[in-house]
Amino acid sequence: xxxxxxxxxxxxxxxxxxxxxxxxxxxxxxxxxxxxxxxxxxxxxxxxxxxxxxxxxxxxxxxxxxxxxxxxxxxxxxxxxxxxxxxxxxxxxxxxxxxxxxxxxxxxxxxxxxxxxxxxxxxxxxxxxxxxxxxxxxxxxxxxxxxxxxxxxxxxxxxxxxxxxxxxxxxxxxxxxxxxxxxxxxxxxxxxxxxxxxxxxxxxxxxxxxxxxxxxxxxxxxxxxxxxxxxxxxxxxxxxxxxxxxxxxxxxxxxxxxxxxxxxxxxxxxxxxxxxxxxxxxxxxxxxxxxxxxxxxxxxxxxxxxxxxxxxxxxxxxxxxxxxxxxxxxxxxxxxxxxxxxxxxxxxxxxxxxxxxxxxxxxxxxxxxxxxxxxxxxxxxxxxxxxxxxxxxxxxxxxxxxxxxxxxxxxxxxxxxxxxxxxxxxxxxxxxxxxxxxxxxxxxxxxxxxxxxxxxxxxxxxxxxxxxxxxxxxxxxxxxxxxxxxxxxxxxxxxxxxxxxxxxxxxxxxxxxxxxxxxxxxxxxxxxxxxxxxxxxxxxxxxxxxxxxxxxxxx
Length: 555
Description:
Elements: H1 4-9, H2 16-22, E1 30-32, E2 38-40, H3 42-47, E3 55-61, H4 71-84, E4 89-93, H5 98-102, E5 110-111, E6 114-117, H6 119-123, H7 129-149, E7 156-161, E8 165-167, E9 177-179, E10 190-192, E11 194-196, H8 201-208, H9 212-220, E12 223-227, E13 232-234, H10 241-248, E14 255-259, E15 264-267, H11 282-291, E16 294-298, H12 303-318, E17 324-329, H13 331-337, H14 350-368, E18 374-379, H15 386-398, E19 402-406, H16 408-411, H17 417-427, H18 443-455, E20 459-462, H19 464-476, E21 483-486, E22 506-515, E23 520-525, E24 544-545, E25 551-552
Parallel strand pairs: 3-16, 3-17, 4-15, 4-16, 8-11, 17-18, 18-19, 20-22, 21-23
Antiparallel strand pairs: 1-2, 2-14, 5-6, 6-14, 7-12, 9-10, 12-13, 14-15, 22-23, 24-25
């Protein structure tokens, strides 16, 4: 059996000029990055400005487990399947972060015969967008410390600098450190922190910015910290936004690649959904909607994180309305939620699956709260038994949910024909899309709506620091902002060990941060880390390259 990277390396790729032509993109409207990648220019966006939008489909999933769900694989396979049934479709994904690529799971561009290519490029440096975000972020940090070193005219309180450095790598040693050591020539000593780049405010801004003017405006609104007199200080106080925008001017342009079946894919932006808003860029999604009749996009991790943020943050920011939602589940993952160990998930066990199906039930009910038609995609594994499959199908019928077996991992687009047909039908059903909460509600009320209606929590407990931050945010902001909850992806609760559908639990809010430029409030819960660490056996340890430049071990 071939690995994902071996399948990708055997693919018959078409030149990016051919892929662009399939979408009606004209010469001069894209900038090739080698033969198989391209940036889409502002000229294309301007030409298509008056064109009607296609249908928007969001793919989400149950809570991730070690047993596997296949959300990105399903997204890619669905895009390929749309072509098989004669539909003009494009997929819109996030760029993989190097953190998980070298950390827990290796590559992140789909799997089996439902992948985006060139797989190695996409999973590694790609077109340099995430590097540009890192550089722009750290330029602002350098300007902050230089301003303090050069006399500190803004009277920055070094104890209250809240803007953090970033790196697109899991490196727990950088979570907390002291900088400026070594004497006066090396700066002013102070405590500092790193976060992973994809959780940074600069990444959030890149993904939500409408254009370069909006990008620069948002960057200028970033709160860097406070003066010793308590005054809020912004990136614009250091005149940082112009140079930061200059570093991001190319990163702002969406990237065009292809799937294994040579169908088009836009990949742009890469925020995590457990510690950020978890959606690809507004620019890529809006451009895709002008280029195709159907746009298949995804949001990170389970629907409790990515899908809720897609609806309440991204759709609200960009004025988007999803036409259908696809909820991915696997029999293996449901058995894991039912209490079966990972190594036993391949063994038939209907009772365990029925015990764990409450996780799927919670996600299905959550998605239905947004008023958009839902299709359950049952991502098939070779080990699934007929009895297990029939029990899962019976559950979907009992819940009144459309469903389809997805075999895209094994068969590519051919394995997703039924799913594609069901999704097309769902897009024509009545749609009463609405947000979960009103923006003008108090911060705590918005938090408690999410935690109770989506997570199923009985209560919320706030730390003293979180309480103080909420009061400060409500005092400085007259208009309401959406909430971005940072929470473990492994459970509906803030405890990764609570599987299935936990009840009666409290969500523990440990910190609250205003991302003023991005335009939302981050609420940290439980023991969530914004700079992850590497596992005992990092994926990096199995990645290699030979003398001819061929990469192996990348998933």
